[in-house]
Amino acid sequence: MDAIAIEKPEVAMSWQGVVRFLHKTPRAFLPMRSFPSLELVAGRGIEGDRYFVGHETGFYSHKPEEGRQVTLFEMETLEALRRDHKIELLPEEHRRNVTVEGVPLNHLVGHRFRLGETIVEATRLSTPCRHIEEILGKSVFDPLINRSGLNCKIIAGGTLRVGDAVRPI
Amino acid sequence: MAKAIKTVSTVVSKVEDLGNDTKRFTLVDQDDWELPPFRPGAHIDVHLGQGLVRTYSLCNEPDDNRRYVIAVKREREGRGGSNFLHDRVEAGQPISVSLPRGGIALDPEGTNVFVAGGIGVTPFISAIRHLERRGRSNYVLHWTSRGQPVLPDMIVPAIEAGRVRLYDTTTQAKPVIAAIVREFVGSGLAACCGPAPMLQAFEDAVSAWPEERKHIEMFTPPKVSAKSDVPPYELYLSASKKLATVTPDVGLLGTLDALGVDVPVSCGGGICGACRTRWSEGPPIHRDRVLSPAERQNELIVCVGDCAGQRLVLDL
Ligand code: FES
Questions:
Q1: Are A100 and A19 in contact (CB under 8 A)?
Q2: Domain with CATH 3.40.50.80 in chain B
Q3: Domain range B233-314, CATH class
């Protein structure tokens, strides 16, 4: 796998990562809950998540965004926050759906890659939200600039599980 | 881009009439999901529609994380919030609330002395339930009420253990607050919530105490994301022909909000660019991390922006 990737011009695409945590929440501001698996639906999002397209009911007023059907976050950022800023940010607190390890998220914008049995396409880097400080009572906004995760579109859906591999295509 | 969601959507699951003109409302998520966390004695803004927003202390404790419980006394002479809640809000109704704010920094070891007047007991009920749940008894509540106190059902173990001192002012004299707090002058925390004269007496009694050892419950206003330190200026919106004054406490974004202008806001912190807006008179104060110097010549990131002059004109 790596050998094949290295033969391609994109050397930077030779990596292999793993899914460490999966989270979702049905509405804005509500705490994220951890799950052993999530159902990813192509073109729509994660079943039961706040950004799922076509889930707007009653006073649910979030307009889902095309490019944010699933969001990813690097495990390494949590470690860096602990090391460099002495901030303990837990996987359920960064508010992205998939916490991965060994995946260079910031280099994937515009690329498609495999997330377990699913295929996603990275649309843009996530930006942190001011509310995160209010919700958590932790000063994480500045430290999260430029490493707040990745927004993706789901190209091929399926079940995503903790422990699944994340690979370039 | 969608307009940013600013409130938590909840549903009224229960309304209880406690007598003495007081009702207790339990708010939950429609799917019984956990609600955003809070500290003991925190408060929320309840959005009642048509700009009617009122702040109430939560009376449940942080570990009870799927409900927000508030108790509301009807203020017949009030500004309408309590009457609206009493007359118009029923179980099953949706209701929007803010994220919880504030709370009491309890002393983990020393004694926490709570002084409450009437319905002002609510933040201390939250604090007492929090301490009791942790098996702590390092507190005492002095609770003044006219007639039967409401809500004692929420702190039954505390009352049975003798940690609550009740004063019914229809039959008893009011307690002397200075005398209550005197024995704790050297350690612990003293906190008060109640009518203005009670707060004043408390403030006088603890005036010499260090700040971190006293808590006077005043609802803290929501944090303005970009705290403004510039003098007030005039804001004119050239497309919609609207005029307003921007004051430091409301800020530019708050003023736009009040004018009903739909500016897309995402990060609220000047880094995503969602709220970029053209300006024609200023000069504006730029605090964003998005725009280039050239772009700043005619654009402003309004979520963190301000005006250095007397008048800001935005193309909205
Ligand atoms: S909302 Fe993100 S820059 Fe203003």
A1: yes
A2: 112-216
A3: alpha beta
